[in-house]
Amino acid sequence: MKDVCFLIHGSYGNPYKNFLPYLHKSITKKGYYVIVPQFPIYSLQTYDNWSDILEQYLNLGLLSETSTIITHSLGSIFIVKFLKEHNLKIKKLITVAGFNNITYEDEHLYNSFYLDNTDKISVAEDAICICSTNDKYVSLDKALSFAKMLGGKVIKYDNTGHFSSNDGYQEFRDI
């Protein structure tokens, strides 16, 4: 079986938004089997609802210790919490604009995703955390704190916002 790579969208996202379609195409060309689940959004956006979907891939053996996962925004803490709860350590985790806890206007939609214990968490053999100096949703401090929690390598971009389509990120050639 080919190596499996999951692309996990963020809040209010979908598999066809931001840089995910570009990554799907480019990673598939590298020989990976790419899975881009659609998670519930708006009022149905809860950790349990997202977890129910990802557990199907775990039960099928598609999500395993050999998997690579690339996440955006809320998808980052979701994956970390999911892997921690399932005691699964994957091959590689790349987070883009990841965070554990932010104050936001729709905070009630995010609370179920957050981890209470933010000590170092090892959920991947290799963790890379990509962040921006001017993300309007995830401050640089929050992004760096998230990277520290994962023990991940930090790649910091200047003035790239939240790495969304609105910030010019239809493609992500560095991944």
UniProtKB/TrEMBL annotation:
Domain of life: Bacteria
Record GO terms (molecular function): hydrolase activity
Record flagged with keyword Hydrolase: yes
InterPro entries: AB_hydrolase_fold, RBBP9/YdeN
A Pfam family annotated for this UniProt entry: Ser_hydrolase
Keyword Hydrolase: yes
Keywords of this entry: Hydrolase
Protein name: Alpha/beta hydrolase
UniProt source species: Candidatus Onthousia faecipullorum
